[in-house]
Amino acid sequence: MPEPQPIPAAPPLVEISDLRFRRGGRWLFDGIDLSVHRGEVVAVMGPSGTGKTTLLRLIGGQLRAHSGSVQVIGEAVGSLGRRSLYALRRRMGVLFQSGALFTDLDCFDNVAFPLREHTALPEPLIRHIVLMKLEAVGLRGARGLYPAELSGGMARRVSLARALALDPELILYDEPFAGQDPISMGALMKLIRQLNDALGLTSIVVSHDVEETLEIADRVYVISQGQVMGVGTPDELRRRGSEWVQQFLGGLADGPVPFHYPAPSLSEDFGGGAS
Amino acid sequence: MIVRLRQLGAGTLSATTTLGRAVLFLLRVVRGSGELIHRPGLLLRELYSVGVLTLVIIIVSGLFVGMVLGLQGYYTLVDFGAEQSLGVLVALSLTRELGPVVTALLFAGRAGSALTAEIGLMKATEQLAGMEMMAVDPERRVVAPRLVAALLALPLLAMIFTLLGIVGAYLVGTSLLGVDGGAFWSQMQAQVSFEDDVLNGLIKSMLFGVAAGWIAVFNGYDCQPTSRGVSRATTRTVVVTSLVVLGLDFVLTALMFD
Amino acid sequence: MDNARSMELAVGAFVAAGLAALFVLAMQVSNITAFQQSEGYTVEAYFQNVGGLRERAPVRMGGVQIGRVSAITLDAQRFEARVALTIDQRYDDLPSDTAASIRTSGLLGEQYVSLEPGGMPDALAEGDEITLTRSALVLEDIVGQFLYNQSGEGE
User: Fold this and answer.
1) pLDDT tens-digit profile of C12-51?
2) A218 partner at 20 to 30 Å CA-CA among A30, B10, B118, C154?
3) CATH number, domain at A29?
4) Which domain holds residue C131?
5) Within this chain, do residues C116 and C49 fall inside the same structural domain, yes or no?
6) Which of C21, C31, C110 sits opposite B163 (nearest CB)?
7) Which chain B residues contact residue A62 at CB under 8 A?
8) For the segment A172-224, what is each residue's pLDDT rounded down to a tens digit?
9) DSSP designation for C104
10) C interface mutation test: which of B46, B50, B52 has the most C CBs within 10 A?
């Protein structure tokens, strides 16, 4: 049985400690600790509505925590000014669930967008970089297509190429597998893992697709009800996770999370109504 | 009763909050719009969609409004034997009031609603959030050029509308109703003042441009990111812009022309 | 890129049209030309009552416009209205005994200053005063006088 991974000497790339975040009167996160080391693919899993996407927004600085700290690449995201926050964001890429491609630009211009915004590179060089990034996701031939002409999986791959355009250190994936057919799912899984290793990236994957995520992740955080329910390599979690984690990973209908939403007893609802 | 009061209080509170958000938003966008000097291409594209594409409706409406003013004005003036003053009547109505106001209303319907829908859809499809995470500030990249284009385009459109209105009234007056063309222009020149009428009309349309642009981009940026939210924001842009323009016009008229 | 060119062209044409419209409004519709027409000379005329005369009203001789009213002020010593008339340089030999009167074009039309030439050989020059003036006809006075006369005849 493998012990928890030895902690590398370098400080983690992303370190979240005692994070608390409230939305609509409810603590979405109530004291979460999470760390991601350079070169890792870390998955954050949990049932729908646990605020996995919110976690990504907290890491990207689009939201600010109510207490606790979020450190990304050595910077405390919550207390950065606008300028340093934007400088930090250039070092990360985000793959949105919808792809978030610009609908009035074709694939080429979408990938070229961050380059044109942030660099003064000459157009021939931009062309080279863009085609290289598109090649990396296998869509060099689709450069002239508009987002409306792409399938969902292709849109995500173009979006991934765009996220890679500025050679980030950290990539955040928001539900990359949701609603994909098996083939594009396989393609995305392969891309996430290969790009991470080939380009020396660090990846955080937020997902509730258990099988796919466990296959590519180095470590997994399972989050529910504002708490970290389990941490470890996929193997560890499968074997030693708590009852709740077992239910989530195994996709069991009943367990610590009951099948039935809390309700008055059957006899009360059906028997009592008649009188 | 208590419930009513509470609703009233909550409504006032949320309206005030929205206003505050809109003002802060405007300040941020204005502060960020300085970058446009280095990116004239962005402004150019928005001037095209906000200005050039609105031109047709402005030209047609301007001519027709002027022609109607010519007809109606003539029938009123001819009873007093003052049909020579048709030019004055038409020019003053158009430069002071109708030019800026009608242009702003048409602008809200044609360009303002499009701005809101465009920005709202970009928000709904996470394009704005995506841009933000690419370290590109959507307030500067998306909103600022649209706002600046709106407040540049509206005065230009208002001037075109006003001039075409006068031309329309001239055509109807001289060809249909037999008003003397020379008297039409000379009386107009004698009575219409550049500072008091033309310049004040221009100032009005500039302020309307600020209002129309601001309302349009804010409603888009602040909308609920759903299809219903975008559609409601678009409607709200047209309604709020129309009301604000008319209210503002009353205040400005009271201040400018005593 | 061809697309971008035609867009630039359209925007350029739009801005030019807007500015041209403003220019025409300034030059053709409003009286900004009056300020450019400074190549004229100004004479003064005193009236007991200017009625509804406004600044920038036309000055006509024989029905032809030859200048504009440039200022209307009250002379504090004479308690009369002092009207400054700016007359186009082209008409620089109006006789010095020219008379000025305030007339109305039509029953309810605008009021203007009408000049009738006299017979003196020397011409009006910058700063001169027109001494022969007739005030505006005030409609209420005429109606009042008419009624007064009527009642006088009736007795």
Assistant:
1) 889 889 999 988 888 877 766 554 555 788 888 888 888 8
2) A30
3) 3.40.50.300
4) 39-138
5) yes
6) C21
7) 129, 132-133
8) 988 888 878 888 888 888 888 888 888 888 999 998 888 888 888 888 888 88
9) E
10) B52
